């Protein structure tokens, strides 16, 4: 069982920091667009821009943070990013109370939070690699994955209730406090962390993040998985606003049913993440990438055919559950493989490059599918996304690519 394998006290504090931050973000999921609607009377175009442009700008801000964080001790970097998120998120309820809150501030907060999240995740991956044994990486990543999905199952419904009881900025305040608690948990980790030393000429420059992309694109397994991930994550995330319009506006789903349709399937993430280690041990990593990587994309097109009523609600829940179970099984295996096949001195830049590319893909595909929905219909855009994603397994690594003088990047063994 994933939950029964001890990984040590230091990992326990790291996991606690991740968990409290994840649950805070779950409570605050979608809070900034909601504040824009409820408190600032923003237009649909402004809300869409806040959802897409803010994270995209954050990805650009994260570019120089990658080489900056590579040769610094990772725990202080993570604490700094937690405190940064706490400060900028706390500015929202303060400005709201004083009557100063505006849309421009929400854009700034969205961008800074996105950049800090990328930097935190990259530093956290490098720190995890130094903290646990190589054979325990999959167990550790599975625990993070299960925590992420459970926070999404519990957080948004509680956040909606909190907004109803305490007003539109309540969940943003809770999210800010969660990052403060995360920083405190990280400070509880004892032991001195060695400062990483550069290899060769110093890469502490904005262009140093390109070293992460060079590593990804120069590695056959990582390159294939990266290109596949860009399209899969971008197309799946691009359907969220389309489904909101389809379910709430065109099919007349009440908000509580809409929330249930996305919160309940997140519990499937607990199942998938707990199965990851067993499935890899039994079938090998290559088969997980090929088979589960294919299964996670076949369900999306079904969302284009959802109908009103209880049957439609059940259909959405079943389809989302299938997507989430397969994603949560696949993701920790991918995260482990990525750490194992990245040199220590490149981990932060590689993870940053991966996150920046993924965020840019999500923003681009969300904008394109939104434009298609405006010119046609949400169902047409959902159908298009569902058909496109069916082609993404062609980008997954093939077993035939090994054995040509290149070490097998997808071997089942560790």
UniProtKB/TrEMBL annotation:
Membrane topology term: Multi-pass membrane protein
Record-annotated membrane-spanning stretches: 12-40, 52-71, 224-244, 256-276
UniProt xrefs under PANTHER family: INTEGRAL MEMBRANE EFFLUX PROTEIN-RELATED, MAJOR FACILITATOR SUPERFAMILY ASSOCIATED DOMAIN-CONTAINING PROTEIN
Coiled coil: none
Location of the protein in the cell: Cell membrane
Keywords linked to the UniProt accession: Cell membrane, Membrane, Transmembrane, Transmembrane helix
Species this chain originates from: Streptomyces albus (strain ATCC 21838 / DSM 41398 / FERM P-419 / JCM 4703 / NBRC 107858)
InterPro entries: MFS, MFS_trans_sf
UniProt name for this protein: Putative major facilitator superfamily transporter
GO molecular function: transmembrane transporter activity
CDD domains recorded: MFS_MefA_like
A GO-annotated cellular component: plasma membrane
Signal peptide, first to last residue: none
